[in-house]
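[User] I wish I could look at a protein chain and see how it folds. I have put the entry right below:
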Amino acid sequence: MHGSVDIQDENVTVDRTSDSMDRVRVMNADGRELLFFCPDVTDASTLKRVQQFADHGYRVTVFGFRRHRYNSSYQPTWPHVPLGLTSDGRYGQRLGALLRAIPTIIAHRQKLKRASVYYARNIDQLVLAMLARLISFSRAPLTYEVLDIPPILIHDGWASRLIRAVERLCLRNTRLLVLSSPGFHRAFYDAVQRYHGDWFLLENKLHPSISRRAAAPLRNDRGQRPWLVGYFGLIRGEETFNLMTRLAERLRGRVVFKFRGVLTTVDQARFDEALRRHPNIVYGGPYLPHQDLEDMYDEVDFAWALDLEHTDHNSRWLMPCRFYEAGYFGVPCLAVRGFEVGSVLEQHEIGWTFDMPLEDSLVRFFETLTPDEYDRVRGRLGASPRSMFVAGDDVRQLCGRLD
């Protein structure tokens, strides 16, 4: 392929001109080859991570499945080995997909032997990567990255206990555990899995090539219009959506909720019905994050970061992508008090958090919030260091650990 290659991820489109590609080839001349095992080659986080590893001198080959979600038509520009289709949450189907992928793994054992690093995302891929190392008799170190703690790892049933045991066994043969939130280590890998090995915090920060036109000016019309709350990304969680529809009913004329993205665990029919019933719930359709993020956040006053899908584990521990997106574009987040993201907002005083019952707390907030108070918080957010939201030395340090 000649000319430029556009590599798109959840935050940015990176234009690889011939000069920059030449630099990457020089960096790759030292034989550092990374095999990335992932659950979805079209997922935005996969694209971002592949680009980051390539930026830091690795030749990356992705062994990946696909899922029928947004961006499903994307065709990777980097070397990849297709492993088949999987589905969110369907663990029986995913087990079958892993078994069907074994012949493909065997067929690529020569490439597996040459790798200097194995990198696996989620428990399925960790098991597959370990199998690949065994098949190829590779001694390359294995790194395990976790972006979410799924419910199957938390429940008390026999299947959950079995999967936790498998993960513990795999962790004994893992060089490094990479987590997107310190809450995952504190509440699960230390407290539940009793993992005391090496781990690295790699937050969901924006790619360093992200840019913006200028800091959005503080609006002076808030006394004459409703507050605007943006929910951008994967629209998930029936409890979350139910809360927002109740708020839309009680705060009609005072708050408008603006959705962009794709539905995951929210029923399409219920979502469409809410749009018909509530004029202050607006859906703008899917978006291209690398192109549309700035315009989307410029249109709202708040970013919704109240995730109620799994309040006893994953939702409580994670640091969502929208915290970094909204923070970079100067939009304060709304979150649950006591959750990981809420604690960060309170620590830096750059957003608002809410106690149970959330509905009444949020109604009181919007009924009493003044433009002056909003401007004070937004001003503190605007003065926050760029490094809080945009990746700096994070990936370079990780690559040093991989080496």
Remarks:
- The longest strand covers residues 227-235.
- The longest helix spans residues 91-107.
